[in-house]
Every structure is written in structure tokens, then in C-alpha cells.
Amino acid sequence: xxxxxxxxxxxxxxxxxxxxxxxxxxxxxxxxxxxxxxxxxxxxxxxxxxxxxxxxxxxxxxxxxxxxxxxxxxxxxxxxxxxxxxxxxxxxxxxxxxxxxxxxxxxxxxxxxxxxxxxxxxxxxxxxxxxxxxxxxxxxxxxxxxxxxxxxxxxxxxxxxxxxxxxxxxxxxxxxxxxxxxxxxxxxxxxxxxxxxxxxxxxxxxxxxxxxxxxxxxxxxxxxxxxxxxxxxxxxxxxxxxxxxxxxxxxxxxxxxxxxxxxxxxxxxxxxxxxxxxxxxxxxxxxxxxxxxxxxxxxxxxxxxxxxxxxxxxxxxxxxxxxxxxxxxxxxxxxxxxxxxxxxxxxxxxxxxxxxxxxxxxxxxxxxxxxxxxxxxxxxxxxxxxxxxxxxxxxxxxxxxxxxxxxxxxxxxxxxxxxxxxxxxxxxxxxxxxxxx
Amino acid sequence: xxxxxxxxxxxxxxxxxxxxxxxxxxxxxxxxxxxxxxxxxxxxxxxxxxxxxxxxxxxxxxxxxxxxxxxxxxxxxxxxxxxxxxxxxxxxxxxxxxxxxxxxxxxxxxxxxxxxxxxxxxxxxxxxxxxxxxxxxxxxxxxxxxxxxxxxxxxxxxxxxxxxxxxxxxxxx
Lengths: 437, 173
Hints:
- The structure holds two protein chains of two kinds.
- Chain A has helices spanning 3-19, 24-39, 43-57, 64-77, 80-91, 98-114, 117-134, 139-155, 160-168, 173-179, 181-201, 216-243, 248-265, 271-304, 307-317, 322-336, 342-359, 364-380, 386-394, 401-424, 427-436.
- Chain A is mainly α.
- The mean pLDDT of chain A is 84.
- By secondary structure, chain B is mainly α.
- In chain B, strands 1-2 form a two-stranded antiparallel ribbon.
- In chain B, strand 1 (126-128) and strand 2 form a beta hairpin.
- The relative contact order of chain B is 0.13.
């Protein structure tokens, strides 16, 4: 079979099954069974699917995924997330647009610890939007920063998605995790600047209201008790990786234990909260690992059928610059983001894009970071970006999709600016991983 | 007849939830093992290579033990664009065939998983890492998991339930 027919069959089948509403993991497994029968010697190929799954799952590099998920769920269910939010809320005082800043700052912390843009949007949407609407904020300024902080979740370490992408792309997991630190801070700053200019140009978007003054002593207490310890967990996870005390995999487990200890110190660790955290982390872990199980053979069949090499040779034969090729890859992710979740997009594109990036001579850590950001943009791109629908689910009654689109656009623009900055100044992504080496 | 089935279905449910419970325990145990390993190493003691091996096996067992429970809990993610756009009857027909396909996929993998497990047992295959583990012991989790997944999807068909849950966006408060 010619490689282009193999590509059409492999991608066509999996996308068709997904669109028909088959659970993503089952769609991967179903197309693997069909493709294994065709390309891997009939029924013997199905046995190979299971053996590949065995090999892919028993890989130590996947450990951070359940650990980071458990860490985020513990942070949420023990109430540490709410504590941090309340503290930031009280600290910000009377500045214009304070609730939007609270969303960005608190959301950055939560996104970093949870690593899930969907979870972050769902939490912030139900927590912050009603309050902002009550205070007369425009719908756009209420919802935009919430969707924006989702972008931070995937790049600021610890990020389970970054671990998976690096594993799929066979690049350095620790380097990709560290690469997100500076761009994450830059993105949060871009969001803050956007809110500043927005509320300066259109003050009615965030009407001022009186906030009860918090004495300096109370502010210091809030910083020391409710913010510094949470930040220390993130610093601990990144610090032990950079200092070489632990690998990224091990840092994830240590971070997880740190949240348990922190919650115990706050007397917030109950059997109920612990059980709920494990339950929630287990759900996502099982779902994600089953998808990885299914995708293990997918990338092998892509290579085995000649689809990967054919597609890469075809793509590189055109007279397109490296930048042009990067933009094409990003455009494909944006398109897929219209109807797919990040995990599926990543599993479909990484087996092709990473070898292509290597052929083009890209630094794989730099490329991985750009791909993570593109995945997030795809996730938030109108008209069908899935995060927009999550936002719709938690937005006040009567909110239209059009309003959600307009709310998301300025924040998507910030992510695109960041991608532009990383392309123009690669050290933004590569400097910190370089130091840790 | 139903009375006769009740103890069987109770026993089955106990196995299903027991497997999920064990998956949760393994996840926490994995965290504990890695932390102990890091602590021992940085304190200058010799850590056990078995920690590493057990962690890798747990990574296989956690999703396989939890997979049937995830179907029961409707925790899978899916793309709902087409499903929700269809009118009532067409939607029911599509969902029916999607679930039938899921039963078929899980059943095929259970059968082949069973065959591989038996082959590994007969050939005394070993998974060689820090110690030699009989491979069939690990592979046996596949027919068990996929077989129970097939049962869970089939159960949805019998009960005329949708396989779709609330998705990741809604958290339990």
C-alpha cells in the first residue's frame, strides 16, 4: 500500500471513530486492531498491539503523570487551592480590575499545581465568574482571563502534558518541564498587562468597588501562611530537578508528598479529601494511560506502513522555509483543536511532528514548548475549541458562545505573541534547561 | 432468575470496585516507594533496584485494574459534537453501534490477551528486569481488564444506558 493511502486510512479511521462518539481510548484501540490486521500480519498483529501496550506502559518516564495529577487533586480537595485564592484576593486591595488579576495570579498558581487547563477553567469559572458578574465586570473580562490561565497550566511545571509530550517525542522530559518556567512567567505578565490596558481604555469593564482594608500585619500573615508554602511546593519540585537531587519523575512523587505534608500541617488532610483526591487522579490516569496504551501501536504502525517516512519526505520536499514548516505544523494543531482534546491531538501529531522537527534541525525542547502552546491555542480556538465549551458549562445562564469567543480572543492573542517571542528568542525556552545540564 | 443472579452480580461488583481500589492503593504506594528511593539515595544509602521495577509494573496494572471501573463510572472522554447534533432516534442508533463496537474491541483484546497469557505460561516466559518476573502474571491483567470492560460496555447495552458521563470538566464538590 502506498504511504498516502496508509496515512489516509490510519488518520481517517481514527478521526472518524472519534467523531462518531467512540471513547478516545477505544477509538485508538479499534483503529490499531484494524491497522494491525492490515499491516502487521493479520491476527498476529493484534497480539503485537497488546505486547506493544505492555512495553509502552511499563515505562518509568510515565510516572510523573499520575503523580502530578494526584498532586493537583490533593491541592484542590484539601482546600489549599481555595486558601491561596482567598489570600491573593485579600492582598490585592483596591486596584482596578482586581478580580481579573486575582484570576490570573491565583489561576497561575492553581494551573501550575494542577497542570490541567480543563480543571483550571472549570474551577475558576465556577469560583470567579459569579463574583465578577456580581461586581459589574463585563462578561468578556470575567471569562477571558479564566480561559487564558489554561494556557499556563500546560507550560508551567509541573505539567503532566509536558511529560507526555517529551516522552512521545523522545526528548528530555526535565528540559521540557524547565523550559516552561520563563515563558510561563512571561505569559502571566502579558495577561496582567492586557488587563491593565483593557481596564484603562474601558474602565466600565471593571467598575471599582470598595474592598475592606486589610491591615499590614494580616497581609504579612496571609503571605507567609497561605501563599509562600504553596509557592514553595512548586519551587521544591523545580529546585530538586535543577539541583540534580531527583529526576523529573522522582520530583513529581516528592511534590506529591509535599502537598500531603502541607495539607496535614494545615489540618486539611482528612481521609475523605485524600480518598476523593486519589479517586479523581485515578480517573484521569486510567483514561490517559488507556489512550497511551492504544497509541503505542499507532506510532509503530505509522512507521511500519511507511506512513511516517512518506509523510516526512513529502513534507520536506517543498521549498518551504523552516519557519514556514513550523507554522504549517501549528496550523494543523489549531485545526485539530477544533474538535479534539489535547491528549488526542498530541498522540496523533507527535509521532510525525517530532521526527519532522528533528529532520529540520529544531531543538526538540524548544519545539516541544511551542507545540504545547499551540495545543493550548487549538484548545481555545473558536468556533469549536473544547475549552470554550467547558467555559460555557460554568458561565452564567444566558452567556452566548459569541460572548465566549470574544472573551477568549485577546488572551489567545497573548499566547500567539508568546509563541512569536519564543520563535524570535529561543533562549526564552532553552536557557533554563541549559543551565540545569 | 434475578434472585440467582444477585450474588453473582454482587461478587462481580466487588471484584470491579476491588480492582479500582487496588489501583488507587498502587498509585499511592508508587508515590511512597519513589520518595523512599530518593531519600535513601540522597542520604547516601544503597537503594533497591526492585523499587524501579515494581513502579514500572504498577504503571501497567493501575490503568488495567481501573479500566472496567472507568467504564462503569462513565469516565472516558469522547467527542460529542456529532452525537449531540443528531435527533433523538438517530442519536440512539449511533450510540448503540458505538457501544457495540466498544464491546467488540474489548472482547477481541481480551481473547488475544488470554491467548498471549497462556502462551507465556506454557513457554515459561520471563520479564527480565531487576528480577525475573513470570510474564504471564503481568499479561493476565489484560484479559481480565479487557474482558470486564467488554462486560461493562455490554451492560450499558442491556440497560440501555449512554456510555457518556459528565466528562472532565465537572468536578465532584
